[in-house]
């Protein structure tokens, strides 16, 4: 029997194995990294993506861009999943993880050419990662998780590398985000619910972006004759309607006497009047209802100077409950004083030709609203992504109040220490660990490259400055800026295009983000290194359109090529399942 001519797989199956498979895998991973390198740092540029429907996305967020593009190669998908994993876990560092992955791949290719086995490279990378995490934890600066100054520096650092950087002068937007976070965070339990910050978007000038100590509802007041402003408002939240009861199935009423029609109509009206009376007697001056409100009820409420807003989303009802302290009521005949909420003022305001209801000045809000303004929907979407990233960064800090300097300074310092420690290993692992250190340096070098700096000069100068500082550690002491410092932290000042002390520039990042980036990048590349056989089956054509979800999973269904979303039917998801923002 001729084994060479025997066909093991069916038609449409493509197989690559051994060295060739590994080379293609690493090449695919490197190509993905090359796609997003240009995002990194304050001088990074944005990318424009246009899908098959002609829908345009302009973004500087690594994970968002990678979710949009459609890749075939499984190795490229591994890198995209790594970016998604970091985005879902810590909300920032999505570009860094891909750049580091690409650098690790490049070094792995060099090591393979030297004849070092994939197993040796995997072990060396894993040991180097353990070393890096240990060093980062050792140099991390622990502070109080409610230190507003540090929080502002963290938010400012995050936003400066995003699309909002031109609008962060005088720390306007970082201040808004920090103030919002401080209102809703439970610092003692180190807990914050990100979705308790509602982000409402309206076209306008970015300088008009504001924080509301309460909730903004994108609805109008139900009746023009109702008051447009109510101060010291007692607020009632209804998860019900104030209108005629209707049977859920078809019903038939048989009458034998004309008088019975009158009785039936009067009973209907009396039931509705009873509901109206319950609301009026409760003392509420503002009513938000998830259901409809009958015109007769609106007339009565107007006469009693009660402001109502009907058919609001369930999400808005939950945000209002957290902001005002009101309980959501279902039974109108059981309204207690304790069910009422409070706001200093409830008013209607015109924002970009649309009327919106503001519930402002809540005494102890557990939900606040950031009203984002920008000159176009595309910029608003990018702002939304950016603000969410900064909120996640502050959430990470509140959970683990440890910070490290940014601007690539930590990566450059850790690379130097790992190189020094690599000499403890006598075998080929020493070379692998040194290559891992070189890969770490790719973070500051990419920031410098995007700023138009000469990377060869930067590499030598940065290494020289860090090495000269390595012996002068000293004791930890608090400096005039309010940050702990025990050495100079040299990194890339991309704005002034020079090497600078990141701590003096207040460029800081949460420890959680750095750890997550290191672990995810290393594990992804170690996974690819261990693959030596790729068997690909040609996908079956479907009538639907393949598209990718927020968590990175791809599927296809009928009508998938048309604009659609997978919102919860009740509107419970703030961030849509398809990464629309």
Layout of secondary structure:
Elements: E1 13-17, H1 18-36, E2 47-50, E3 56-59, H2 62-68, H3 74-90, H4 94-113, H5 118-139, E4 141-142, H6 148-160, H7 172-184, E5 197-203, E6 210-212, E7 215-217, E8 229-238, H8 258-281, E9 286-289, H9 295-303, E10 307-309, H10 314-324, E11 328-329, E12 341-351, E13 354-360, E14 368-374, H11 377-399, E15 402-405, H12 409-422, H13 429-440, H14 442-450, H15 455-469, E16 477-478, E17 484-485, E18 490-493, E19 498-501, E20 508-510, H16 511-529, E21 533-537, E22 545-548, E23 554-557
Parallel strand pairs: 5-14, 8-9, 8-11, 9-10
Antiparallel strand pairs: 1-21, 2-3, 4-15, 6-14, 7-13, 8-12, 12-13, 15-20, 16-17, 18-19, 22-23
Summarize the structure.
With 581 residues, this protein is α+β, with helices and mostly antiparallel strands. 43% of the residues lie in helices and 18% in strands.
């Amino acid at each position: 029997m001729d084994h060479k001519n025997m066909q093991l797989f069916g038609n449409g199956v493509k197989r690559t194995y051994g060295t060739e498979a590994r080379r293609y895998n690493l090449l695919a991973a490197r190509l993905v990294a090359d796609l997003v390198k240009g995002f990194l740092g304050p001088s990074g540029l944005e990318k424009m993506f246009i899908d098959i429907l002609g829908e345009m996305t302009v973004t500087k967020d690594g994970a968002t861009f990678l979710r949009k593009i459609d890749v075939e190669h499984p190795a490229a998908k591994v890198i995209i999943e790594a970016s998604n994993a970091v985005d879902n876990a810590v909300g920032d560092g999505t570009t860094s993880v891909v750049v580091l992955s690409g650098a690790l791949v490049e070094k792995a290719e060099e090591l393979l050419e030297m004849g070092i086995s994939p197993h040796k490279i995997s072990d060396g990378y894993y040991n180097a990662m353990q070393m890096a995490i240990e060093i980062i934890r050792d140099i991390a600066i622990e502070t109080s998780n409610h230190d507003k100054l540090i929080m502002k520096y963290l938010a400012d650092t995050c936003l400066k590398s995003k699309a909002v950087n031109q609008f962060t002068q005088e720390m306007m937007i970082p201040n808004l985000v920090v103030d919002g976070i401080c209102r809703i965070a439970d610092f003692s339990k180190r807990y914050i619910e990100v979705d308790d910050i509602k982000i409402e978007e309206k076209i306008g000038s970015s300088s008009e972006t504001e924080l509301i100590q309460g909730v903004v509802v994108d609805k109008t007041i139900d009746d023009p004759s109702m008051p447009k402003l109510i101060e010291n408002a007692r607020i009632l939240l209804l998860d019900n309607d104030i209108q005629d009861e209707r049977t859920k199935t078809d019903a038939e009423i048989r009458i034998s006497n004309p008088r019975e029609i009158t009785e039936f109509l009067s009973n209907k009206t009396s039931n509705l009047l009873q509901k109206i009376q319950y609301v009026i007697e409760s003392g509420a001056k503002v009513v938000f209802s998830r259901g409809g409100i009958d015109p007769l009820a609106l007339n009565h409420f107007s006469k009693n100077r009660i402001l109502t807003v009907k058919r609001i989303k369930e999400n808005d009802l939950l945000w209002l409950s957290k902001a005002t302290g009101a309980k959501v009521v279902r039974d109108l005949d059981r309204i207690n004083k304790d069910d009422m909420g409070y706001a200093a003022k409830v008013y209607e305001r015109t924002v970009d030709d649309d009327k919106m209801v503001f519930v402002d000045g809540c005494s102890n809000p557990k939900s606040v609203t950031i009203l984002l303004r920008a000159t176009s929907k595309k910029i608003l979407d990018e702002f939304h992504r950016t603000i969410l990233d900064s909120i996640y960064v502050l959430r990470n800090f509140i959970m683990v109040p440890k910070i490290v300097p940014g601007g690539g300074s930590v990566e450059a310092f850790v690379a130097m220490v790992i190189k020094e420690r690599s000499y403890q290993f006598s075998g080929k692992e020493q070379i692998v660990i040194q290559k891992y250190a070189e890969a770490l340096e790719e973070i500051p070098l990419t920031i410098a490259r995007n700023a138009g700096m000469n990377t060869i000069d930067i590499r030598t100068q940065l290494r020289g400055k860090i090495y000269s500082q390595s012996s002068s550690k000293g004791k930890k002491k608090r400096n005039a800026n309010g940050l702990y410092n025990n050495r100079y932290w040299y990194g890339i000042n991309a704005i002034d295009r020079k090497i600078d002390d990141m701590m003096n520039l207040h460029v800081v990042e949460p420890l959680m983000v750095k750890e997550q980036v290191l672990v995810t990048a290393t594990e992804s590349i170690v996974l690819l290194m261990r693959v030596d056989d790729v068997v690909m089956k040609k996908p079956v054509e479907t009538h639907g359109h393949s598209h990718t979800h927020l968590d990175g999973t791809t599927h296809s269904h009928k009508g998938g090529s048309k604009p659609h979303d997978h919102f919860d039917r009740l509107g419970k998801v703030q961030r849509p399942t398809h990464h629309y923002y």
